[in-house]
């Protein structure tokens, strides 16, 4: 069972040593200077989530803009993305922000589900202990 936020692999559940950081460089040939922006993706904490992020980035941004975008992933969690236009930079930023929001919503939903499961388990324990007390009296 896989979602858009998960990918499979031998190291998929291993934690990343560092949060995923993106340095987005706009190297527009028309401009004399490059622009640089840093984005922290601290919700991406495992290799599984990282691989899923790059699968989605490839599908939605990199492949449709092939030849205008390059990226390199370092072992320290640093990702350098180089684009050749401001519009493409804006597209990457928008994609990253939307992906991060989806992860945040997903994390909130998972936390809520975990809390509900814990409450149900506590309730079951309470009911079982009441049954034991009634049987023994």
UniProtKB/TrEMBL annotation:
Gene3D superfamilies registered for this protein in UniProt: YML108W-like
InterPro entries linked to this entry: DUF1892 (IPR015080), YML108W-like_sf (IPR035946)
Domain of life assignment: Eukaryota
Residue ranges with Basic residues bias: 127-137
Stretches for region Disordered: 104-137
Ranges annotated as biased composition (Acidic residues): 110-123
Protein name per UniProt: Uncharacterized protein
């Amino acid at each position: 069972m896989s979602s858009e936020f998960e990918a499979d692999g031998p190291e998929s559940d291993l934690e990343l040593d560092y949060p995923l950081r993106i340095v987005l460089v706009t190297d527009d040939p028309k401009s004399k200077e490059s622009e640089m922006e840093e984005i922290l993706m601290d919700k991406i904490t495992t290799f599984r989530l990282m691989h899923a992020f790059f699968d989605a980035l490839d599908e939605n941004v990199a492949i449709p803009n092939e030849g205008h975008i390059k990226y390199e992933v370092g072992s320290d969690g640093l990702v350098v993305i180089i684009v050749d236009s401001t519009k493409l930079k804006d597209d990457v930023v928008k994609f990253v922000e939307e992906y991060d929001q989806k992860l945040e919503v997903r994390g909130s939903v998972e936390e809520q589900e975990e809390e509900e499961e814990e409450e149900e388990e506590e309730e079951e324990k309470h009911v079982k202990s009441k049954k034991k007390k009634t049987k023994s009296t």
